Amino acid sequence: MEHRSVRFSTKKPVEHEAADLLGDWDQDEFQKILRLPLTKIINDTYYDRLDVHTAASLGISGKDVPELAPEWETNLNAENAHKWTPLMYAAYLGHHKLCEEILSRVPLVDTVNEVGQTALMLAASCGSVDTVKILVKYGADITRQDSRGWSSLHYSTHYNQSAITDILLEAGADPNLQDKEGMTPVLIACEVGSEATVSTLIKYKGDPNHRNLRGENGEAIAAEFPKILKLIRNQPSLEGILRQLGLEKYIPLFERDEITLSLFLNLTENDLTDMGITLFGPRKKLLNVIKQYKERGILAVEPDLTTSEATRDPSSSNSILEKKSASLKVEPKSNPNSSSSNDLAQVKNELARAMNLIGAQQKELREQFELNAYLHRFVAMLYEKQRKDRTSFDPKLNNELEQAVSRLITSMNRLKNFI
Question: pLDDT tens, 148-159?
Fold first, then answer.
């Protein structure tokens, strides 16, 4: 059979110049690369061996694989390229029995990897309750922090591991320990939106009123979670305690020294004097609150009964409610033809309408507060981004954002007095 080539054009084929793949590259440099020795060929049998790190991640010990036994005896604390040890793999993947076996041989429970994480931090993030209990039993440092300032309690709250959070708190973990951004486990729980975790942390003296480096406290961070907001607002605040004691004039002193409620409850008489509270009466009232809390575990606050009505803070919510109720209250008319029961019923009806009006106004104020909290988070995020992005840094915009953050915080603090 005859074969013929077929062309679809009678024109002469177009010739192209060969592409210069090397460009301006020196031919000698290219030849040097060609002369480099080839990569060493590794026999497949090399990959059949089981190292201690892989074994630990699978929950396998030297007892299970005889050929692993020699390395298991000598390299149990060996670090891989990222400084992970066999214990870290076992803890991270929840092999609690293997963790106990490793710790019984090599009791180095607080070894850290390249980012400063310990086996306890890894276990706390993954929810293995038994593993956490074993690590705590072997003396793991529950206050240790990694390269960004996170402790094991930060990890358990971030990943919403409530059972592990309980274990760590019972073991003495600090719910107010700050990371490098000023975030505490309490603030992280507010960010995650876990009402149960926030409640537990507050029970162990966690302070939702603490502010991070962006100026956000628990209320601002939890603005999208109404149940957490309600929980936080039902907690006593240092400012509220000072107002109940009639000592609101000292609020600026506590704000100046960044004294939170948890710090206040550990102050001594000398600390109060050094802050500028030199009068004996106010100092005694504050020390009584601290003493009652340490002895009975409750905040027993006795208001200043000597404060007259004229000097009461008009911005307090109780004062506002009293004034609104008084202004809307209808006194019984002196009418001999009407019975006292009818007058009383009329008064009750008017008071009920007044309280409904006050409730509606408070609801509007709460909604405004939540909106301000959301705007505060958004503006704070823009401010932080503007501050870090030096390539397009605008000093005027930076100043305006900083003022906006400050005004929102002031507005939120003012609204908080009414709700």
Answer: 999 999 999 999
